[in-house]
Amino acid sequence: GIDPEKVPRKASWELGVKLADDMIAQHLAEHGEYPRKISFVIWGDETMRHEGVLESQIFHLLGTRPVWDARDKVVGVEVVPSAQLGRPRIDILIASAAEGMFNNVTVLMDQAVQKVKALEEAENFVRDHYLATKAALIKMGYSEDDADRRAGVRIFDEPPGVHNLNTGNIAGASGSWDSDVGMANDYINKMGHGFGNGFWGEPMQDTFKLALEGVEKVVHSSSTMLYGALDNDDFFMYMGGLAASVRTVSGVNPELMVTNTRDPANPEMASLDKFIASEFSTRYINPAWIEGMQAEGYAGARTMVEFVEYMWGWDATVSEVVDDRMWQETFEVYVQDKHDMGMREFFETESPYAFQDVAARMLEVIRKDYWQADADTRNELLQRYVASVNEFGINCTEVSCGNPRLMEFVLEQGRIGEIPAIDLDAFRAAVENAIRGSIEQLAEAQAAFASSNDARIASQFQNTQGPSELSGFRMTQVERSSVVQQQTRTLPASSLSMSLLLQGLVVLALLLWWWRRRQQVG
User: Fold this and answer.
1) Pick from 23, 303, 6, 319: which is nearest to 171 by CA?
2) CA atoms within 13 A on the CB side of 36
3) Could you tell me which residues are beta bridge partners of residue 39?
4) What is this structure's pTM?
5) With contact defined as beta carbons under 8 Å apart, do 500 and 508 qualify?
6) Per-residue confidence of the chain (522 residues) as pLDDT tens digits?
7) CB of 92 within 8 A of CB of 154?
8) Which 3 state secondary structure label does DSSP give 219?
9) Which of 207, 300, 312, 431 is the most buried (most CB within 10 A)?
10) Could you give the 3-state DSSP secondary structure of residue 430?
């Protein structure tokens, strides 16, 4: 097992220093200057495997290093003198800190930030940003003491014991939004709780927004082949959600990097687009992988659907890492069956609804202009989707029955693509029987909701917030049993933002509508 008090281990520290230096050198070569602020996503299960490589990168960027005792336990951090460091102290932002699993490391990283921000040096980006944030918070109405405490926070996460980031659900409900500001808003509201400098999970979304400004890179880690970036939603929810929030706050797309230690003999800092492209090519369009999924029957078909949904999650949050080529190849492999693997027979035998999910999502990506598919591709997708619905009935999911705007798109583009009217009429009947309403009327209502909701969130997002009603509490050294008890504490209702309240009312209204429909059916 791993002893949290020995994280980072000395070997992990050495590797983290090397990879951080590689990242700095790459940035210097590409931009001609040092990065000023880099953000990190830390997961506890990753830390258990790499034993503190990512955390070591953070310590090194700040210009600090761990202090080990005779038993190799980390007992503190010390500042590396600027003359020895030989470069600026680079600011950091941590979003998702694994505070529940490695509280001691969270405390150490905070100690490093607090020591560095106090150094009056010529090239100390940490102190520069701390002073700028403090001034901004005072302007918002915070007292000087409270602004000083908050401006020193660099670690943000969900409240202790809470894990309910909603980025994946928002991405999936793509008919209900036209701007990604909703994903950024949800991410900031959920993740905007500060840890360190006297706080432990207090909501401070306004401080989080200020901390997001100026982030130039977002770094995640991958230390195992057990999972990748396209076989789960957590990767894009936390890393993609963070990048989308940086873009919304600053108007700039941060560079996305992966601290890749999967191969211990060849650790590297990989760009996320290359990391994802490699996984996509070696797994999801690889006949060997597809054959393995086919052997699993309907479960394998479901896994294919999940991969397409997760690829859409990346496209929705950071579209630069998913290009048209990837969607085109997915279409050619899973719809056109370019490897001659009997994909049509497989889907129709094992799960025609899985095929509908894949086709509907690809059509939705086209509808939203994330994929500039050619006319032949679009028409073939439309024909196959309409034919499947007419033969097997519609599979009602978020992207189909829950997205009348897409159903309207299918009818409109189907007419342009000269799908026979009798087939489109049958498709309309199947859909409208399932949603119990007019496609056009419901599509119009959904479009109106998306427009008004996007505008509402954008206006709230731009509003300057004042001081929180909560005063927080001082962080002290506590026993682990006390930490567990503290993590179960319920946050006061006053900490909820108005936007979350309104979103909850929308969800409640939808649930009531669904219940009434069920009663009518019964």
Assistant:
1) 319
2) 11
3) 93, 218
4) 0.88
5) no
6) 789 999 999 999 999 999 999 999 999 999 999 999 999 999 988 999 999 999 999 999 999 999 999 999 999 999 999 999 999 999 999 998 766 678 899 999 999 999 999 999 999 999 999 999 999 999 999 999 999 999 999 999 999 888 889 999 999 999 999 999 999 999 999 999 999 999 999 999 999 999 999 999 999 999 998 889 999 999 999 999 999 999 999 999 999 999 999 999 999 999 999 999 999 999 999 999 999 999 999 999 999 999 999 999 999 999 999 999 999 999 999 999 999 999 999 999 999 999 999 999 999 999 999 999 999 999 999 999 999 999 999 999 999 999 999 999 999 999 999 999 999 999 999 999 999 999 999 999 999 999 999 999 998 776 655 564 433 333 333 333 333 333 333 333 333 344 444 444 444 445 444 444 444 444
7) yes
8) strand
9) 207
10) helix
* Contacts of the segment 437-446: beta carbons below 8 A, 24+ positions apart: 437/404, 439/404, 439/407, 439/408, 439/411, 440/408, 442/404, 443/404, 443/405, 443/407, 443/408, 445/404, 446/175, 446/176, 446/403, 446/404, 446/405
Under DSSP, is residue 217 helix (H, G, I), strand (E, B) or coil? strand
Cα gap 241→236, rounded to integer Å? 7
The 8-class DSSP code of residue 493 comes to G
Residue pointed to by tokens 């209502």? 445
Supply the DSSP symbol for 124.
B
